[in-house]
Automatic annotation (TrEMBL):
Pfam families: Plug (PF07715), TonB_dep_Rec_b-barrel (PF00593). The keyword Zinc-finger does not apply. Belongs to the TonB-dependent receptor family. The keyword Signal applies. Residues 1-32 form the signal peptide. This is Iron complex outermembrane receptor protein. Residues 260-701 form the TonB-dependent receptor-like beta-barrel domain. Its main location: membrane. It is found in: Cell outer membrane. It is a multi-pass membrane protein. A motif (TonB C-terminal box) lies at residues 721-738.
Length: 738
């Protein structure tokens, strides 16, 4: 029987799972795993602090995963990071490849397409503020860095929970080569990936990379003539030009585009006896099978100029544009009880300019300015009971809406949104001795927001205007904030590191995108604030062969922004939860046991509680936060089975577990997601010259059925709304390097 403390953290009760956790605890696993190591040195260089540093010297909790590891493990979209990073969760209510991340219990409890997550996503140091700008990104990557905890001083406003950095492979001078791979899997999945690096003289190089994927839907649709849902259909291209036109000047120009047109996801509607009678768990009866559309375009210029031997000026100028549209069969059935089309058109311009010193003296600094302008056009429609005849006259017309309101009605809103953010930021460090360093940072941010041309109307199913429910309206906000961080770290002669710091960060105000019925629904949520206390250690044993790192934290979380859905009528209001507290820790291990075997594991523990707050008049004090399981862990191995003059055969199993969690703060017992484990792995062969490779891979090998988001719509629409995790997938990939 597990001990009471283990029960309190939500640890699994099975003997096998308990043994795995006990082994991890006994090994003191670390908070930054060596899975990012693509070479033999055992060192991982990251830019989490906007400096190139050895991961073991960075005094924050970071998980870094190298590009080769990502490719071999078939991490093809950002959702797949969950099995690699502890205390990282996501809510997939917007669909695959557009995740709403949660980290250490800090999350965005709002699925509106105009919002920005408190866990920021960066592509090559460019912040992607909106869902429509994310696109297809997980290809030809050098590494992924996941930073836990507030990152406000260096990374800006919406990083109260952390940041995810996706870093593409660079164009390299003097190198000619590339790679190509093709794969086939179940559900008819086809994958094609490739990249080529070509030098032009001694000072310029070009890299072009692309990806293509297509698969049938895994959610079997039993409605005649309707396609299966949750398919894959996407492609992306990225071009990079790198130049060193003169000594001390380095230029990187990146341009990319992507397009996704899969069949949209399906909704598992409960109770099953009413909404899914006679259906298998992987079947659905959906009357909407339209393709989802997501298109992105982006360009970014990074310039590094060595102003002096000890000072570098960096400029990052970027522009992004994207469109996201999908028609959701919200009721998850063949009826027309509730269906919602979403539209999001976003663009963004950003400029980051900073000085970075490397004096070789005790004092060093980063000093910068940042500007971001985001424009969004958002439109949403609640299509309610379009097949209900209310007036007794044959045929569904506008009269049915006027008579049976809200039945046979389309409730539509649309608005434009503009946000501007200007910041001055700094990060400094002072080494009192070779061992003891003081670090700190400040960031002043000025934010402005405008929600204009907001209008909500109700139409009949034939698009006849019935009533104007919210007349043309406008909302604004203007805020100023000072984010800060201060801490100490101590580095021992053997390279081991101890650190502690305190930081304060904020998330900018938000506009409610889900106002449909009354002007009172229009609102601006107050900014969030997190004060975080963190201490940790980064330890190395036997040189770099083993790393044992861990971190512990405590958060004072104020004014979390929360979208509340009234289950009786689907009215949605944007609220703030006054105060919450979160504490816990991470521990991760990377162990090279021998030349034939490496082990890696991670353990995340989390306790979250609302201290003060109410939702729809219900006191939620004492409830757990959403997307905050008490336990997450992962355990994997890299085992060489055969190593000969012909080639190398290796096996890479992995298991990831998370304990029970809620997706809403009312903690409705029937919507609690029980704990579950995901098993995955790959068997690889690579020729001795490294040119040819083959991989047999599988994900969710036990075919575990679990939910990735849940919403209570039972009282008003007779259903609980659920997103389902992907079933078992597997396939074969062949590759060549040239």
């Amino acid at each position: 029987m597990p001990s009471e403390p283990m029960r309190a953290w939500g640890l699994p009760k099975s003997g096998a799972s308990s043994a795995i956790i006990a082994a991890l605890l006994a090994a003191n696993p670390a908070s930054a795993q060596n899975e990012g190591d693509d070479g033999d040195s055992g060192q991982i260089i990251v830019t989490a602090t906007k400096r190139a540093e050895n991961l073991q010297s960075v005094p924050i909790s970071v998980t870094a995963i190298g590009g080769n590891v990502l490719e071999r493990a078939r991490v093809t979209n950002v959702d797949d990071l969950l099995t690699k990073v502890v205390n990282l969760q996501l809510n997939s209510v917007v669909g695959d490849n557009t995740p709403i991340f949660a980290m250490r219990g800090v999350s965005m409890s709002d699925y509106s397409l105009n919002q920005s997550s408190p866990i920021a996503t960066y592509y090559d140091e460019v912040y992607k503020s909106n869902f429509a700008l994310l696109g297809v990104s997980m290809f030809d990557l050098e590494r992924v860095e996941v930073m836990r905890g507030p990152q406000g001083t260096l990374y800006g406003k919406n990083t109260t929970g952390g940041a995810v950095n996706l870093i593409a492979r660079k164009a390299r001078l003097g190198e000619t080569g590339g790679d190509f791979s093709a794969g086939y899997g179940n559900y008819g999945r086809i994958d094609i990936n490739g990249a080529a690096n070509v030098p032009f003289g001694e000072k310029v190089a070009v890299r072009v990379a692309g990806t293509f994927a297509r698969a049938d839907g895994w959610f079997k649709n039993i409605v005649p003539s309707k396609a299966d849902l949750a398919s894959v259909r996407e492609w992306a291209l990225r071009g990079t030009i790198y130049a060193e036109p003169s000594d001390g000047l380095r230029l990187t120009l990146r341009a990319s585009t992507s397009k996704q047109t899969p069949r949209n996801y399906g909704i598992h509607a409960q109770p099953e006896a009413i909404n899914r009678a006679g259906l298998d768990k992987w079947e659905i009866a959906a009357n909407i099978d339209e393709r989802r559309l997501a298109k992105t375009w982006s360009v970014a210029l990074t310039a590094d100029l060595d102003v002096a031997d000890w000072l570098t000026l960096t400029s990052i100028t970027s522009y992004d544009d994207g469109v996201l549209w999908f028609h959701e069969d919200t009721d998850g059935t063949a009826t027309k009880t509730l269906e919602i089309p979403y539209f999001d058109d976003a663009s963004q311009f950003a400029q980051d300019l900073r000085f970075t010193s490397d004096t070789g003296n005790p004092f060093d600094f980063i000093l910068g300015i940042y500007f971001n302008r985001e424009k969004v056009l958002n439109a949403t429609t609640l299509e309610i009971s379009q097949d209900v005849d209310s007036d007794g006259v044959p045929g569904i017309t506008a009269d049915d809406c006027a008579t049976g309101l809200p039945l046979a009605c389309l409730f539509s809103n649309r608005f434009a949104q503009t946000k501007k953010s200007f910041a001055i930021y700094s990060d400094v460090k002072y080494a009192f001795t070779d061992a003891l360093t003081l670090r700190g940072g400040l960031r002043y941010t000025h934010d402005r927001g405008l929600q204009s041309d907001f209008e909500a109307n109700v139409f009949g199913v034939d698009a006849t205007l019935i009533a104007n429910l919210i007349p043309l309206s406008e909302l604004r906000y203007k805020t100023e904030n000072l984010s800060s961080k201060i801490g100490l770290d101590y580095k021992f002669a053997n390279g081991n590191l101890l650190y502690a710091h305190v930081s304060r960060d904020y998330r900018a105000p938000s506009f409610n995108a889900q106002a449909f019925f009354d002007p009172s629904e229009l609102s601006v949520a107050k900014p969030e604030a997190v004060t975080a206390y963190e201490a940790g250690a980064k330890l190395g044993v036997a040189g770099s062969a083993t790393t044992l790192n861990f971190a512990a934290f405590y958060y004072d979380y104020r004014n979390q922004q929360f979208l509340n859905v009234d289950p009786t009528n689907a009215a949605q209001t944007l609220l703030n939860i006054d105060k919450s507290r979160i504490y816990g820790g991470e521990a991760e291990l990377s162990l090279r046991a021998s030349d034939m075997l490496s082990l890696r594991g991670g353990l995340g523990m989390l306790s979250s509680q609302i201290v003060r707050g109410s939702v729809s008049g219900v006191n939620v004090e004492g409830n757990r936060l959403s997307n905050a399981p008490r336990l997450t862990f992962n355990l994997g191995a890299d085992l060489t089975l055969l190593d000969t003059d012909t080639g190398r055969l290796s096996l890479h199993p992995n298991v990831a577990y998370q304990s029970n969690q809620f997706f809403e703060v009312l903690n409705i017992s029937r919507l609690r997601q029980p704990g579950y484990a995901i098993v995955e792995g790959h068997l690889d062969f690579e020729t001795s010259d490294g040119r040819w490779n083959a991989s047999i891979w599988g994900k969710n090998l036990t075919n575990k059925y679990y939910f990735t988001s849940r919403i209570d719509l039972l009282a008003g629409f007779g259903l609980d709304y659920n997103h389902v995790g992907r079933p078992r997938t597997y396939g074969l990939t062949l590759g060549v390097r040239f």
